[in-house]
Specification:
The complex is a heterodimer of chains A (315) and B (433).
Chain A: H1 12-30, E1 43-48, H2 54-65, E2 69-74, H3 86-95, E3 100-105, H4 110-116, E4 123-129, H5 135-149, E5 162-166, H6 173-184, E6 188-192, E7 208-210, H7 213-219, E8 223-226, H8 232-235, H9 242-249, H10 253-258, E9 264-266, H11 279-282, H12 289-314
Parallel strand pairs in A: 1-2, 1-3, 3-4, 5-6, 5-8, 6-7, 8-9
Chain B: E1 5-13, E2 18-24, E3 27-32, E4 40-43, E5 48-51, E6 53-58, H1 71-80, E7 83-88, H2 99-112, E8 116-119, H3 135-140, E9 147-148, H4 158-167, E10 174-177, E11 190-191, H5 194-199, E12 203-204, H6 206-223, E13 227-229, H7 235-246, E14 251-255, H8 257-261, H9 283-295, E15 300-301, H10 330-339, H11 346-361, E16 378-388, E17 406-416, E18 419-423, E19 426-427
Parallel strand pairs in B: 1-4, 1-5, 6-7, 7-8, 9-10, 10-13, 11-12, 13-14, 14-15
Antiparallel strand pairs in B: 1-2, 2-3, 5-16, 16-17, 17-18, 18-19
Helix pairs in contact in B: 1-2, 4-6, 6-7, 7-9
The chains are: A alpha/beta (315), B alpha/beta (433).
Chain lengths: 315, 433
């Protein structure tokens, strides 16, 4: 495995391998000296064509904890904003000897383009491409779910767990990667959203589609993952306004109160408090939102380790 | 001085009849068995002779986008594909919305000399969809424009579309509609489907095409005019056109070679060579389009040859230009998808690629049957050739989605106005005085 572009690049075995590597990385992250020499002397570039703070610093921290040298290349303020093409940017970094490109891009499939073109020999890690995928987010979500609901040091899969995604499925790369990964790991995934945000062909990718969130919650889920709703969706007639969205699909205080206390609440961040999730829900004991952030570093260390230390020494 | 006679010996007509075809100057001299005519003999045993092909939908890119194609390079690609006439789409820079521009395109076609280059005029000024272009002036110009299209953009305003349909009745013109509701296709990048969701690409739903076709056939009926639908791509569109024809509405429809062969599955690796508008659809759509070609619902095959520079395809999917080239492979795709599958015979192929498009446009020297005194515009095909499509092209661009595929049928000779433009598969260098 040279690249991680999509959850489709993984199978049951390699997905678990990454989660279990992440468990080991978590040990490192609890030490006083949080550093491994695994990628000493290797160069990794964060190539971000779209604004992101949390994912970028999570990857940066992960690479640094593995002792890699990290370059941050943000499109804003760089030559990309002056019209430099993706090809030129990638070839430039290749010429400087970068061995891994961690890429976030506003166009779906831009990471595939970089990996498939002959512009660069670097490993490509998808840090979120358009509305396509965000595989490391799905991996950190799976690890979080396993630790909360199966066991903190468990090494198995998620068989039988029931997960509900709520919100903008149509535009969510987090939802796409999660639908694929959670299914791969044996979980049963359902979705709930206004019909305008339910994509064509979703039925073959999940167990159930609920237009009505209360009907869904009534079924009882082990995990409820709230997705961020973008304000521009209001302008494209996907929904009337934010108040209507909260009314129908927000995890407000009363819906939160009606949940089984064992149901785990998750959100990939950044949250719109008061829109898709209330503060009471987000900050509750049931919320695993900060665990997701913590696990992000470990999962990204695991991915970097697998792609750069294991695979390249094997091959 | 009398021009030399050429005699094409033992060619098979679309009817299946094997004949000799003698031509002299720009016309057919005689057609029959064992002609006792002397001249240059060309052995055509095993070759099928058809009327020269007519493309109703070609982007030649000149003026304005000569880095992708010129009228000369596009004409050579057309000849290589067996065409003797092409219709140059109006979305150039400047837009072909005045007599001056269409006359210029026409003149450059004459200068190139490989095919008849028939300009298409824009329906609206600047393709902006706001105000009609100089339709009458373009019709009365030396370019004699009869087909008008904003192709690349839909004439979306219902009133403007109605007026355009009415206005061209004065000179028996036809509006060729690019059927795409722009509001339903904002930022659309591929067919709306499960795959589009998985790839995270905004979907281009079938209904965006079908709703416009439904509206426009009704408008055409209401004002008693003539409508042509460009690049029909969905099974639902076929149903609407079938209904309209049964009702007696004067509508014709085209399908592109790529929509007869390729499906959306090809998009999965985000290779922009497969990015085209309307998008590649499902296998169900492909089969419905083939059936519609066979039963007459779809009248013609038109290439929508859309050359683009390498840079505009060597990038991420979202940035890449829409379109693929298709002049050189049109016959092979048609034979592979329609003849080899047993759906149609060669007479229907001749209608689809020659008679019908020439009739829609009203060309007087193309699409005419191969009999004495008709124009010598012909193509000779080796139907048994099975060749792997190479990336070599007469076109200036290489956005060819068929590279590597094995297709049946090969153009051996093309004769335009009595002269070889392609002989033994080679494009000829013409000495134009």
């Amino acid at each position: 495995m040279k690249h991680l572009l999509s959850i489709n690049d993984l199978n049951h075995e390699s997905a678990l391998e990454i989660l279990n590597l992440a468990l080991q990385m978590q040990q490192v992250n609890t030490r006083d000296i949080k550093k491994l020499p695994a990628l000493n002397g290797r160069t990794v570039a964060n190539l971000f064509f779209e604004d992101s703070t949390r994912t970028r610093i999570s990857f940066e921290l992960a690479a640094k904890r593995l002792s890699a040298d990290v370059i941050n290349f943000a499109a804003k303020g760089s030559s990309v904003s002056k019209g430099e093409s993706l090809k030129d940017t990638v070839q430039t970094l290749e010429a400087m000897g970068v061995e891994a490109l961690i890429v976030r891009h506003n166009h779906s499939g831009a990471v595939n383009t970089i990996a498939n073109a002959e512009w660069s020999k670097a490993s490509v890690i998808n840090a979120g491409d358009g509305t396509h995928e965000h595989p490391t987010q799905a991996l950190l979500d799976a690890l979080t779910i396993r630790q909360r609901l199966v066991g903190s040091t468990d090494t198995g899969d998620l068989s039988g767990l029931r997960v509900l995604f709520v919100g903008d499925i149509l535009h969510s790369r987090v939802a796409r990667s999660n639908l694929l990964l959670l299914k791969l790991l044996g979980a049963k995934v359902s979705v709930s959203a206004p019909a305008t945000l339910i994509p064509a062909g979703i039925h073959s990718l999940c167990e159930n589609v609920f237009f009505d969130l209360d009907d869904a919650l009534h079924q009882g889920f082990d995990v409820v993952m709230m997705l961020r709703i973008q304000s521009e969706r209001m302008n494209s007639a996907f929904m009337p306004n934010s108040g209507e969205y909260s009314f129908g699909w927000g995890l407000g205080d009363s819906r939160f109160a009606s949940l089984n206390p064992k149901t785990v609440i998750m959100h990939p961040g950044p949250m719109n408090r008061g829109l898709e999730i209330s503060s009471r829900a987000a900050d509750s004991e049931q919320s695993a939102i900060l665990d997701q952030v913590t696990n992000g570093v470990a999962v990204r260390m695991a991915v970097l380790y697998k792609l750069l230390a294991q695979e390249q020494s094997n091959g | 001085m009398v021009d030399a006679v050429k005699v094409f010996r033992n060619a098979t007509l679309s009817s299946g009849e094997v004949v000799d075809i003698a031509i002299q100057s720009q016309d057919i001299l005689e057609v029959g068995k064992n002609l006792a005519v002397s001249g240059e003999d060309i052995d055509c045993t095993g070759l099928i002779a058809l009327q020269g092909f007519v493309d109703l939908h070609t982007h030649l890119r000149e003026p304005g986008f000569e880095a992708s194609e010129t009228i000369l390079t596009g004409s050579r690609a057309a000849a290589k594909g067996g065409f003797t006439a092409v219709h140059a789409m109006a979305n150039t820079a400047p837009v072909a919305d005045t007599a001056a521009v269409v006359e210029q395109v026409h003149a450059l076609g004459v200068a190139a000399g490989y095919v008849h280059v028939q300009p298409i005029g824009a329906v609206t000024k600047g393709l902006e969809g706001k105000q009609l272009a100089d339709l009458l002036k373009m019709n009365k110009s030396r370019a004699r424009v009869t087909v008008f299209s904003d192709d690349g953009k839909c004439v979306f305003d219902s009133l403007l579309m109605r007026r355009a349909l009415e206005y061209v009745k004065a000179f028996d013109g036809v509006i060729a509609q690019h059927a795409q509701d722009p509001n339903l296709t904002v930022d659309a990048k591929m067919n709306e489907s499960q795959l589009a969701f998985e790839l995270g690409l905004t979907g281009w739903p079938s209904v965006a095409e079908e709703a416009i076709i439904a509206r426009d056939v009704l408008l055409t009926e209401h004002v008693g005019s003539r409508l042509h639908i460009c690049h029909v791509s969905t099974a639902g569109s076929v149903e609407i056109i079938r209904w309209a024809k049964a009702r007696g509405i004067k509508v014709t429809a085209e399908v592109t070679p790529h929509h007869l062969l390729l499906t959306e599955d090809l998009v999965k690796d985000y290779n922009p060579v497969y990015k085209v508008n309307p998008p590649l659809r499902s296998q169900t759509d492909v089969l419905a389009l083939r059936a519609a070609v066979a039963d007459g619902t779809i009248d013609i095959i038109a290439t929508d040859h859309a050359p683009h520079t390498a840079d505009s395809k060597d990038c991420e999917w979202g940035q890449a230009a829409f379109g693929m080239i298709g002049l050189e492979s049109a016959l092979a795709v048609a034979q592979t998808t329609l003849v080899e599958t047993g759906l149609v015979g060669w007479e229907r192929i001749e209608q689809l690629l020659s008679t019908n498009p020439a009739a829609i446009s009203g060309l007087d020297r193309h699409g005419k049957s191969l009999v004495a005194n008709n124009p010598a515009n012909l193509v000779f095909i080796n139907p048994t050739a099975k060749t792997k499509v190479s990336d070599q092209s007469e076109s200036k661009s290489s956005n060819n989605p068929y590279v590597g595929l094995e297709l049946f049928g090969e153009i051996v000779h093309t004769v335009f106005e009595g002269r070889f433009t392609v002989k033994n598969k080679l494009v000829q260098e013409l000495n134009n005085d």
